[in-house]
Amino acid sequence: GPPGSWHHHLVQRSLVLFSVGVVLALVLNLLQVQRNVTLFPEEVIATIFSSAWWVPPCCGTAAAVVGLLYPCIDSRLGEPHKFKREWASVMRCVAVFVGINHASAKLDFANNVQLSLTLAALSLGLWWTFDRSRSGLGLGITIAFLATLITQLLVYNGVYQYTSPDFLYIRSWLPCIFFSGGVTVGNIGRQLAMGVPEKPHSD
Amino acid sequence: MTLTERLREKISQAFYNHGLLCASYPIPIILFTGLCIVACCCPLLKLPLPGTGPVEFTTPVKDYSPPPVALDHKPGEPSERPEWYVGAPVAYIQQIFVKSSVSPWHKNLLAVDVFRSPLSRAFQLVEEIRNHVLRDSSGTRGLEEVCLQVTDLLPGLRKLRNLLPEHGCLLLSPGNFWQNDRERFHADPDIIGTIHQHEPKTLQTSATLKDLLFGVPGKYSGVGLYTRKRMVSYTITLVFRRYHANLRARLMLLHPSPNCSLRAESLVHVHFKEEIGIAELIPLVTTYIILFAYIYFSTRKIDMVKSKWGLALAAVVTVLSSLLMSVGLCTLFGLTPTLNGGEIFPYLVVVIGLENVLVLTKSVVSTPVDLEVKLRIAQGLSSESWSIMKNMATELGIILIGYFTLVPAIQEFCLFAVVGLVSDFFLQMLFFTTVLSIDIRRMELADLNKRLPSEACLPPAKPVGRPARFERQLAVRPSTPHTITLQPSSFRNLRLPKRLRVIYFLARTRLAQRLIMAGTVVWIGILVYTDPAGLRTYLAAQVTEQSPLGDGALTPMPVPSGVLPASHPDPAFSIFPPDAPKLPENQTLPGEPPEPGGPAEGAPDSPVPEVTWGPEDEELWRTLSFRHWPTLFSYYNITLAKSGVGSVFEAQESWERLSDSGKGGLEEPGDSPPLRHRPRGPQPPALFGDQPDLTCLIDTNFSAQPRLSEPTQPEPRHRAGCSRAREGPGYDFSRLVQRVYQEDGLAPSHSPALRPASPGPGSPPTPEDEGGYPEKGSPSLAWAPSADGSIWSLELQGSLIVVGRSSGRLEVWDAIEGTLRCSSEEVSSGITALVFLDKRIVAARLNGSAWRSSSPASPVYSSSDAVACRLTHTVPCAHQKPITALKAAAGRLVTGSQDHTLRVFRLEDSCCLFTLQGHSGAITAVYIDQTMVLASGGQDGAICLWDVLTGSRVSHMFAHRGDVTSLTCTTSCVISSGLDDLISIWDRSTGIKLYSIQQDLGCGASLGVISDNLLVTGGQGCVSFWDLNYGDLLQTVYLGKNSEAQPTRQILVLDNAAIVCNFGSELSLVYVPSVLEKLD
């Protein structure tokens, strides 16, 4: 297609991804706040969307970046993702991701190791069920590492905190959540990119 | 041919045959499947329906006792009790309903006057209730001890801090708007404004503050500017922790209501289920949105069939009924779901998935269309059989892995998912395939009808790999360009302007009408769902308006002075609360006890035609919003519902409505010794201040007789009956002591003479009984049931009993002979606490007539000779508020007061050494021993340890929810008990909690320390012995038959390891030789 349309689609996709990230951040944070896993200052809790104002935009931006990065890497590597490329599968993936969050927030585990191992197995299962690409795995692990590092820094600088941290300053299941989140958003991003004609490399 | 290939062929063949079968006999198979679904879902009928409305269960008031904690009825046996009726409820709620009106009504009265004086009655009633003393078989207790103690309001409710009670009884009345202060009420120029200041401006479905404090729905209260009926109704809401019936009897006595025929004979237990808050709702809604998106995107792929929607519906039905079957089957095999069904449902659907259904459809429709229908079905099935089986096996494998996470919730989820997958497979094979075959046949017929005129033979359509929506028309008949049939869906292909298309769309679908209809239905649904009580309120209000209320002429009554606000000195109108038609003369005569037949006389002569009690008042609480009580309790962070997901709910709430009705109870008016923990209100009115007490033992101090030890008979228990009625034999203290003496083989000869006259160092009284035991000694035969006031405090040493009376009289009795040795009556202020130590008696008094302005003094008497007591010292103003705890040891005297402080005095010269501050509530328990260790506990639930030598605080522990009721120390630990029925053991040096023991209900304070490592606690009909160092239960001794299990409320340890327990209405003396052996 013409370059204008390509940019138009890019903006559209990033907007969609951004809003998906914002909504997921709000909803999942609500799950965590209910269980008193994260602690934000008191006044904020009183509001319905009980996270600090900067959390949803950050998550949205991250979702947009990741969601654009996945198809981009796919096309760079020259191995377009073909496995279960349909919206139903994407929805299933999102539902499983929400389910993983739900489990991390609401289930009573015997100890943190069990919780983290279970969630790690679930996230790997998520990747295997909906992605099964090497690039997806690598990107997911990278995202999980970076995001964990960032949260460590944030908590270390006292921006917010976790109740009963067991992995330095945060919870040990956080990388699993980031990994599965990365895979999910990447899945959405790939599906969004599917509907658009690929940008020809020649020009 | 490998094994896999053979397996594959077998499966394929089986599916082929199955497809043939399904397509040949569609109707019988669908019927069979339907029957299967119904059969599997049958067990679901036993599960409770989802919903958060409260559930009720009614039991008679008579002989009520809380249900046992454990379910003891057999599973098969049908039980009348609902399943949630287990264990003690969160609270009992008693509402005293007051209806009053102003009569006669003058034209010059303002609208505000309708409720000014009726409301002022609330203050009086609240005081009466606060000063009420509850009696039962085990003793006399103040309201504070039986009501539900609340702690802080939630942090978000700071603006309600002055309006709702904190750190005390949960007692609500309209007076709370003015902090229960009558002056504040009278000074308030804008009563309505005060009442409505916290009303929400917007529509609100839950209970507002006004509803909470008035206890009746807003419409009923009659407080508002535009009320026509001039009738004010409100309730005083009391929340108890345990059930007590006699407050009601007493109120009936005080306020006989002759024209009322209401009966309140049943206790309604209300069970609240967990409510879903908005915070929980949002994730739930999100998961459902994702679920619907998934279903939408999945079913959108169904194509090239006759009825897309029909097949999509069939697919959804397949998944849903497989889930229902899964739950049903699990229930059938005894697995009750504990997970919240609504929460995990979307995940289950997603896990089971619609994939197989879609694959099946795609495979079938891609078979050659010219084949026979059943062959098409069979071919389609068999070609996809392998992948279906492979998928199924994979999913089962994944779920089985999940099963081995050993997390109960995940295991349960996996179990449901496995059963769901299997039943889903079953339904796909039978139900969906059959539906598909029917659909294909219909399509074929339709096609044939269309095709017959033009074309006889069609080339088979190519199987379409991935059908998409826009290919639909082309894909079916790509090679038949000459058969152009105008499909209905080709509407959209017409080139119409956009506006027109929108309008066509709207017209075609009647979208607007449908939206409005759906909106109306949803709105009505929400209305009915959220506030069924609201509708009932409306209906009830309609009925009330027709009932003859508020019209007849009123009989004028004299107005008690002080009720009317000063701004309206119109003497001609009176208030007329039928609940409270007390005779003023009866009320204002102090010191004159009403005759036993008093209640009958107390009824006013004049009939009260105006305020009637009709059936509409019978169950007024039902008209409250069903969120009323959950809202109230949520302010204190008490949840009424603890729900295991699904069906098991634990919380329940019971409450009794009290409307003062007909014949007043004939129970004798009770005396009220000051509540040691909370003399908050004004002093009890003289009306019931001077009654001969209904005698009942609440605690007994068997003095540690030095010679009492070594009973020769190893008899394990010994009981002495204690009757509560005055005319009964009474509790004869001296007789008991004498009997013990005889058992000991000791002549009682040495006691009467020797003990009182033993001032010398010969036999110094042992100091271990320095505890002030709040005893209500019953007047034995020899004791005059004096008119000197009730006994507020009692202390025993040797054979001397020191009695402090409410009249301020201090008496010293000889316990064995039952004679009064001496008495002292210098001050006329009641003695709240006593200490008898080293020939000295210390009495804490409350001076002055009003509690608030009282300056309690603690005079020190010296009874160097038992026959004479003389006043040696008086500390005029020891505390700002009444003294609640008094202990002495090691030459020090410690007083704890309601003013949140402790003071340490030197015993010789009554010099105040320290004032100890650190509690945030009234002091309830103090402990001091020879080693100068001082511990104190307060209403704030905290325990402080102090250094008596320096007056500094050593440690501060938050110990209990509610008051600390008793405190004692050993050399290594501190033992505390609280109103929360917990006994906590703390390390004395570090202040760290070692462990805690959960006591039976009502046995919280029954504990005793036998030695440094042996603790005895009381339970339901038993006493238990614990190893203090490790917290191990050593032994439990049952005190009676199991059938008569009464709580052991008090325990006193004698120094020979015998234990005296207050056990119901009896005393048990337990002597356990084995414990002694363990000690050695």
Automatic annotation (TrEMBL), chain A:
InterPro entries: INSIG_fam. GO terms for molecular function: lipid binding. It is a multi-pass membrane protein. One of its GO terms (biological process) is cholesterol biosynthetic process. Pfam families: INSIG (PF07281). It comes from the Eukaryota. Its main location: endoplasmic reticulum. Keywords: Cholesterol metabolism, Endoplasmic reticulum, Lipid metabolism, Lipid-binding, Membrane, Steroid metabolism, Sterol metabolism, Transmembrane, Transmembrane helix. The keyword Phosphoprotein does not apply. The keyword rRNA-binding does not apply. GO terms for cellular component: SREBP-SCAP-Insig complex. The chain crosses the membrane at residues 15-33, 53-73, 109-130, 137-156, 168-189. It is found in: Endoplasmic reticulum membrane. Belongs to the INSIG family. PANTHER family: INSULIN-INDUCED GENE 1, INSULIN-INDUCED GENE 1 PROTEIN. Interacts with SCAP; interaction is direct and only takes place in the presence of sterols; it prevents interaction between SCAP and the coat protein complex II (COPII). Associates with the SCAP-SREBP complex (composed of SCAP and SREBF1/SREBP1 or SREBF2/SREBP2); association is mediated via its interaction with SCAP and only takes place in the presence of sterols. Interaction with SCAP is mutually exclusive with PAQR3. Mediates feedback control of cholesterol synthesis. This is Insulin-induced gene protein.
TrEMBL record, chain B:
The keyword Glycoprotein applies. One of its GO terms (biological process) is regulation of cholesterol biosynthetic process. One of its GO terms (molecular function) is sterol binding. Residues 698-712 have a biased composition (Polar residues). SMART domains: WD40. Residues 568-613, 656-729, 744-780 are annotated as: Disordered. It is a multi-pass membrane protein. Keywords: Cholesterol metabolism, Cytoplasmic vesicle, Endoplasmic reticulum, Glycoprotein, Golgi apparatus, Lipid metabolism, Lipid-binding, Membrane, Repeat, Steroid metabolism, Sterol metabolism, Transmembrane, Transmembrane helix, WD repeat. WD repeats lie at residues 916-956, 957-996. The keyword Glycoprotein applies. Coiled coil: none annotated. It is found in: Cytoplasmic vesicle, COPII-coated vesicle membrane; Endoplasmic reticulum membrane; Golgi apparatus membrane. GO terms for cellular component: endoplasmic reticulum membrane; ER to Golgi transport vesicle membrane; Golgi membrane; SREBP-SCAP complex. The chain crosses the membrane at residues 276-297, 309-335, 347-371, 392-410. It comes from the Eukaryota. PROSITE patterns: SSD, WD_REPEATS_1, WD_REPEATS_2, WD_REPEATS_REGION. Residues 280-438 form the SSD domain. It holds the Pfam family Sterol-sensing. Escort protein required for cholesterol as well as lipid homeostasis. Regulates export of the SCAP-SREBP complex from the endoplasmic reticulum to the Golgi upon low cholesterol, thereby regulating the processing of sterol regulatory element-binding proteins (SREBPs) SREBF1/SREBP1 and SREBF2/SREBP2. At high sterol concentrations, formation of a ternary complex with INSIG (INSIG1 or INSIG2) leads to mask the ER export signal in SCAP, promoting retention of the complex in the endoplasmic reticulum. Belongs to the WD repeat SCAP family. This is Sterol regulatory element-binding protein cleavage-activating protein. It comes from Neovison vison (American mink).
